Amino acid sequence: xxxxxxxxxxxxxxxxxxxxxxxxxxxxxxxxxxxxxxxxxxxxxxxxxxxxxxxxxxxxxxxxxxxxxxxxxxxxxxxxxxxxxxxxxxxxxxxxxxxxxxxxxxxxxxxxxxxxxxxxxxxxxxxxx
Length: 129
What we know:
By secondary structure, the chain is α+β, with helices and mostly antiparallel strands.
């Protein structure tokens, strides 16, 4: 039973809610277009998986057009603890990224410009003398 329900005495009548009807938290993921990734849409609470899927379709399907809805129990989601574990790689792999080409281009342009000036001066001197 939920903590809130435990605070109240059971009525014991025909309408007493069974303890398995406690709500569980679910995370909802939707896909807005085929071929695109699932996106986290929000959270909902439901007593079981089937109702969670139905609630997810009704609530998040109304907000935006979507082609697929996933619901996942929150306690089923595993996460890495970023405070205790290192998630990113420790080795430098920046060589895999295409960087630095603009620096190389500037250096080549500078060399080419120097050659062009030298050729101009050499041709200019020939005409002058």
